[in-house]
Amino acid sequence: MRMNEMAKLTPGRIEELASEIREFLLANWLWQDVDIYFNGKCFSTYDKEAGRFYYNDGEHLIVQENEDPRTYFEYVNPDHILSMAFEGPVCEMLYYGTHSEIRRKFDAIFERYGLYYEFGDHWNFSCYYI
To answer: Domain 12-129: which CATH class?
Structure first.
């Protein structure tokens, strides 16, 4: 659907998207060195307080409050919807063609929400309405 045919995503729907992305990455063993920024929050694999990473660990949902991706990278959608920073397996999937079937399913998540993503740097992207 084009933007004029659909309403913008509510904060609740954006959080659903962030949760779906996290769950998808966990299910495919790709939840490593990832930060998902949305609604002023960040889902992360790194717990700043504990000084510890939780890779592919569904038991530890690290939520950082009052987070803005513009603090960490330059190229962010001015009308911020959702942005991601990543290294490791997600970067390999998105740039080097590993896990091509998983990549198609990953992209389909965004399409269902009427979004596409555009890379800012090699290690991050920001979402836009289709």
So the answer is: alpha beta
Tell me which DSSP letter residue 96 carries. Answer: H
pLDDT in tens, 61-118: 999 999 999 999 999 988 889 999 999 999 999 999 899 999 999 999 999 999 999 9
Say how far apart CA 80 and CA 9 lie, in whole Å.
Answer: 11
pTM of the model: 0.92
The residue extents of the domains of the chain are 12-129
Query: What residue ranges in the chain does DSSP mark as E strands?
Result: 34-38, 41-44, 46-47, 52-53, 62-65, 83-86, 115-119, 124-129
Separation between Cα atoms, residue 116 and residue 2, nearest integer Å: 12
> For 12, phi and psi rounded to 5 degrees?
-65, -45
Give φ, ψ of 38 to 5 degrees: -165, 150
First to last CA, the chain: 7
